[in-house]
Description:
Domain AP complex mu/sigma subunit (chain A): 1-147
Distance between the termini of chain B: 105 Å
Protein name (chain A): AP complex subunit sigma
Pfam families (chain A): Clat_adaptor_s
Family (chain A): Belongs to the adaptor complexes small subunit family.
GO cellular component, one term (chain A): Golgi apparatus
Largest interface: A-B, 47 and 64 residues
Oligomer: heterodimer
Amino acid sequence: xxxxxxxxxxxxxxxxxxxxxxxxxxxxxxxxxxxxxxxxxxxxxxxxxxxxxxxxxxxxxxxxxxxxxxxxxxxxxxxxxxxxxxxxxxxxxxxxxxxxxxxxxxxxxxxxxxxxxxxxxxxxxxxxxxxxxxxxxxxxxxxxxxxxxxxxxx
Amino acid sequence: xxxxxxxxxxxxxxxxxxxxxxxxxxxxxxxxxxxxxxxxxxxxxxxxxxxxxxxxxxxxxxxxxxxxxxxxxxxxxxxxxxxxxxxxxxxxxxxxxxxxxxxxxxxxxxxxxxxxxxxxxxxxxxxxxxxxxxxxxxxxxxxxxxxxxxxxxxxxxxxxxxxxxxxxxxxxxxxxxxxxxxxxxxxxxxxxxxxxxxxxxxxxxxxxxxxxxxxxxxxxxxxxxxxxxxxxxxxxxxxxxxxxxxxxxxxxxxxxxxxxxxxxxxxxxxxxxxxxxxxxxxxxxxxxxxxxxxxxxxxxxxxxxxxxxxxxxxxxxxxxxxxxxxxxxxxxxxxxxxxxxxxxxxxxxxxxxxxxxxxxxxxxxxxxxxxxxxxxxxxxxxxxxxxxxxxxxxxxxxxxxxxxxxxxxxxxxxxxxxxxxxxxxxxxxxxxxxxxxxxxxxxxxxxxxxxxxxxxxxxxxxxxxxxxxxxxxxxxxxxxxxxxxxxxxxxxxxxxxxxxxxxxxxxxxxxxxxxxxxxxxxxxxxxxxxxxxxxxxxxxxxxxxxxxxxxxxxxxxxxxxxxxxxxxxxxxxxxxxxxxxxxxxxxxxxxxxxxxxxxxxxxxxxxxxxxxxxxxxx
Lengths: 154, 618
């Protein structure tokens, strides 16, 4: 199960935070800070897996992360998830964002956080992987956006 | 009441704030405006306000006043408002809040909505934050949706069911039949959801596990279909069908395979079909992409987990060995982790990859500490010499945080498999020279014990240690052992000839110079100085010409600031003056623990370490 999905930039500012287990608001912010602290210390040539911090559950959970330009994408998962599978999922997520936003960059995530949530909702549900086919995800997201737009125009 | 701004404007305003204080000010103004808007009757910008609030919440500011607005938005007939309302519910509400109960009815209505996207919103929210009561209320709806005709909804309903079962274990019974029938689905997304649901059901209830064990042959058939599928219209990529063993390149198929492997793992049942399928998967998966490697890895784990026969296990270990040669450090890391887990049970198979594992010691990244563990586990009587060469090489260049562990691992290995005493002593000395600062405290007495026991090697050892001492007096453990040896075997050192090493002329002055250098060096710790002082004292019985020099060294330390040293020096001085005849008792071999002096409260003229049998009467 995926416990949390976090996206933050090189300075630790959160760009997306999705928790699949309930924490208080303070704890959520602490988790983001702790995760940033753990992940930003990593060298470029070490592997992309590390143990979770104390707040997120300690050594039972792993943090699987990827660093793209100015953003860290971090998935906190337990032992039932395949690490390589999650690594691939992060790649699919970023590629999907790229397709939806056309050459996505951090600014797109900042100004369209709700859209990112919608895309993520098509990929991960309740902490479980839902869909990994990029075309399928994009089709669904496009239909939903079309529906929203048709409501707005009179 | 200031007018509220669109979401993008607010974000821009927050970003342009230069200090934390300014940011707080902007956010407070916005929140006040949002609160006011919430209190008003329905206006066009409701979804924007809630979206702004959610942004503010992500930055860490309080947003609980938006909870009721979420409830209202979810109940709205407009899709855009429902969407933001459900998102807000997932972020702001949890089972402890009362407001979450209020949305149960809305979710129920939306689950029966005609538009699949509205249904999917409801399913998503329920799977994310549904409490036990909500799950109990809505479980029959979910079961109905599992049998619906729309595969988009079915796959979401399956994962929602997983969440329900996690919250309320008894409801597993309700979903078991539907899960079973979903296994015959063609759509990969639904199949995946069904597999996850079955895994969850099996984990909760052993009876269900028994029931699903019977379906393993069907699962293997499905896997066979996935592995051997040449052409699948909706999942095809290149448009080419290959009648032979063409593994589907669709990522779904890979995930499915890995999940099916998990089921097989869980049921721990094996049969001929599984063996064939697993070996086919293992040999035919494209390992140039991450996703292919993910499947291979799951296959390997499955093989190792169920009671497979040895041929298949060797195949699995060989795949892991191949992973170790991969350029991708992540793959090397997980391969190393798995090998570590099985080195106890499949020792011989892992031994075959010893060369690769030892090569990984030269890596720079984090997998190197696993390579170290594995290498230490693979040391045996037959490979001890070559492995030790590699391990010592590693010790000289390894990262500082691993040195203590590497040193103690090397000592253990040396102790168990040393081919000869001289090799053992050489190895320990090598470690002390390379990493003396990182060894554990008991290494010094252990090494001294070892040297004491190797009586033929005393001459060789003392010469070697003397040379090491001349080269470097910064490694405390090495210096302590060297001082002890010089004190104990000083006569052998001064005699000059030694069969095992080239002879070197050491005069009494040379030996005393070396000890004095240690005594006076600022790098020596108090314990080290203690060793050196005692060794100097012991030399007084083994040399003939320079006893006066020793006496003067010892008396200098009678006024040393360090209490321990001062005490020793005073006692030794006493030995010189009043108990000169007892001094020769120091000739007897003592281990370092015997050198420890009395605790401070006892009088100084009871020198306890002297053997009572040899104490002459007064």
